[in-house]
Amino acid sequence: MTEMQNAPAGAAVAERKPAREPLLIVENLVKHFPVRGKLFRSGGAVRAVDGVDFTVAPGESLGLVGESGCGKTTTGRAVVRLLEPTGGKIVFEGRDITHLRGGALRPIRQDLQIIFQDPYSSLNPRHTVGRIVSMPLQVNGIKPPGGMRKRVQELLEIVGLNPEHYNRFPHEFSGGQRQRIGVARALALRPKLIVADEPVSALDVSIQAQIVNLLRGLQREFDLAFLFIAHDLAVVRHFSQRIAVMYLGKIVEIGDRHQIYDTPAHPYTRALLSAVPDIEVLGTARERIRLTGDVPTPLNPPSGCRFRTRCWKAQEICATKEPTLDIIGPAGQPVACHFPESGPLR
Amino acid sequence: MTTSPSSPASGPYLDVKDLRVRFSTEDGVVRAVDGVSFQLERGKTLGIVGESGSGKSVTSMSIMGLHNPKRTAMSGEIRVGGTDVLKLSEDKIRRLRGQAMAMIFQDPLSSLHPYYTIGRQIVEAYRVHHDVSKAKAQKRAIEMLDRVGIPQPQKRFEQYPHEFSGGMRQRAMIAMSLINDPDLLIADEPTTALDVTVQAQILDLLESLQKEFNSAIILITHDLGVVAQVADDVLVMYGGRAVEYGNAEQVLRAAQMPYTWGLLSSIPSVHGDSDADLVPIKGNPPSLINLPPGCSFHPRCRYAMLNGGPCDQEVPELLPVQGEVGHLVACHLPDQFRKDTYVNEIAQTGVAVVSEELA
Fold this sequence. Notes:
The complex is a heterodimer.
Chain A: H1 12-15, E1 24-34, E2 45-56, E3 61-65, H2 72-79, E4 87-92, E5 95-96, H3 102-111, E6 112-115, H4 129-139, H5 148-158, H6 175-187, E7 193-197, H7 205-222, E8 225-229, H8 233-239, E9 242-247, E10 250-256, H9 257-262, H10 267-275, H11 316-320
Helix pairs in contact in A: 4-5, 4-6, 5-6, 6-7
Chain B: E1 14-25, E2 28-40, E3 45-49, H1 56-63, E4 72-80, E5 83-84, H2 90-96, E6 101-104, H3 108-111, H4 118-129, H5 134-147, H6 153-157, H7 166-178, E7 184-188, H8 196-213, E8 216-221, H9 224-230, E9 233-238, E10 241-247, H10 248-253, H11 258-266, E11 319-320, E12 328-329, H12 335-344
Parallel strand pairs in B: 3-8, 3-9, 6-7, 7-8
Antiparallel strand pairs in B: 1-2, 1-4, 4-5, 9-10, 10-12, 11-12
Helix pairs in contact in B: 4-5, 4-7, 5-7, 7-8
């Protein structure tokens, strides 16, 4: 799906750097979790990620949004190979890493790091900050010039922590500070791509902006690429140049910030955006799209278009023929819908 | 129905005056709530905004009488329909709780009992306050499940909480809290654990139920977008104190307190310039054991001490803003300076907008 990079776009194209070879190519990624059935019977599989394609260019941030259970976290974990993909291909810097194991994975992990959602459970409470942040260096046998301690203190300074706090334990820090420790750990190996899985959603509102600004600064300074996973659409818009919208294990629409937020083509994208409570509108005067019901189970997704059971535009073809991202929406972005919407959101 | 407080003909349904709540811990005294006052009429919604540790949940728990009096020092007045809850015995509060006032919690999974069916839990909530047969209570519970939009209420009645999705669980919680027709409903972060599409459904539901039952609602949240959507009045809390209070238009469109400004300018918007940097509030929320002296926000405030003010010494009082009825602010900065700063600096950032009156 490299052609999506060349899709005609709005004003955002100008700000993007000239097209470079993609850093990460994900092709038809599939991750199924088998379900244990009753005796002698297979319980089927939870089709968490069911054929996902995207690319991330160096220094670019791709946002991945969707409701809980849509497979965005599974996608992120498969990309850093914390999970073994069931099918498809993950190519990082021209190298197929889909089924690498053990030691062969280690050099790749130096370039490919992850920041977790929960700053409380992702740091070992028995380790000092110094040990946590230096662990990636030790595991990979890297001896930084000037010594380990100096490098760790540099990293702490980069993420806005006091380097003197080298010997403190995670419980001595607040939530926002812990997330900074997680960021420092991810930066230790000078990665090229960071998968940020809901990095701010566990933090207080006033702290979220600090971390978003920190990550944005790092992205500019070190030319870092991000796969930014979040359910908060406003935060994603703020952080990512391109955005992919996921629903039930599939990408339903992918495009640059202006295409997704100003002229969304997929009914689901429209419904998501329209459900965001808007502080700029007091009261409920605004016409809004209301989705009814819940996301269907990924154990047994609907035939054809997976969104059709909640879609107000669904017709017969939606149940029989599955729409793919080969369909180009009115604003130029690929959209997996037989009847894409056109025009601005409101 | 003799226990239900007789609502006086005039005056607000809920009247909280100078509420103070303290807990003694090993590390010292936690001043969780430090002199908070507000009123709420029936049919209206009050949004309480603040970060974790700002005292918003403790305030609501006090109204519900959920603090253990042995470990909690409380003073002030909480009048629900004319009765001071703080002076009631545990036995009498229990009769009010669930009937005159009810609460919805953030996490419906941990507030429902996993071992009993949804139906049984709702029936119990009804029969505690009404002397009716099981069959009658059951009929009422199924009606309620239907009313909150749970499909196939007959079948759902027999199911356990783990068989419900997050949104459905929250609906079941709402059904349970509304089954006794409470006059006051406290919703503590009712949609924080939910997806946006489900959040929109729940907020719509609360709104239509409020119209139907004319109940007073306190909505506790950190999401200013949610507040903008549903609240009539807004109370901003910081470090256990009320720092800004007024109607939604006043607090969200003509904010006067630097902490509210900080919230407004640090939240990214789905409109506007996506490349502009957010303006975060520096530092971290204070510890309630060891609050900074003076205005507890001053160490994080960008405007503190601007006019050599007493920000680090005197606690600012919650005083009316000149020319605005009902808009109260606790800040040492001069009125005119705050108005100018909001219009010229704050309104350009984050999600802040200027009200037509100020522009």
